[in-house]
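pasting Transposase IS801/IS1294 domain-containing protein for the record, 206 residues
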Amino acid sequence: MKPKKDILFPAKVMMKLFRGKYLSVLRGLLVDGELSYPPELSKAQVASLLNQWGREDWVVHCTRQYSHGHGVAKYLARYIRGGAIKNTQLRHVSDTEVRYSYKSHQTQRTESMTMSHNDFMARIVSHVALPRKQQYHFVGLYHNRSRERLNKARLSLGQAEVGEVKAVSWREFMVAKGDAPCCEACGEQITILKRVKFIGGDVKFC
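structre below
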């Protein structure tokens, strides 16, 4: 039987296989007493948690492993900055269709796709974030409230602890990069004296 898509492994089958193999290794380590887990959890609670994970759908994405964090940051940056598609990817636009180029994760080559205007706009709009809705969620050890557990994991692997991240304003960032905003008349750095709001056409000082 010819598959519907030109793929090597069906995603659903691969997800179930990976989930089963991964949890099987964890259960084996738990039985042998070689699995490290939080001291406030009992062995029965960890086993129950593994069973719960076995009933959930996992998202499995096959790609070459990253040797360092730069590849992960570059991958996420495409979604955070620049939008879903760049102008340079648009190859042809006619009265009925749009053709654009993209890099295929399967072949690792630049390929092209042609679709109607409506389908193209629907694909673009699907990448637009909903107003006031968080786009990225940090879960597990990377959640904001799991800093202590993250540092424990890093110390067990011989890595340095993660410190508190200080919020940097846009002015501090520009100054650190040597590109501070300056006045066009005198050349000195622009300083905020007072903030103003326009309410009903009137200027109000904050």
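Helices lie at 11-31, 43-54, 69-80, 117-125, 147-156, 170-176.
The mean pLDDT is 80.
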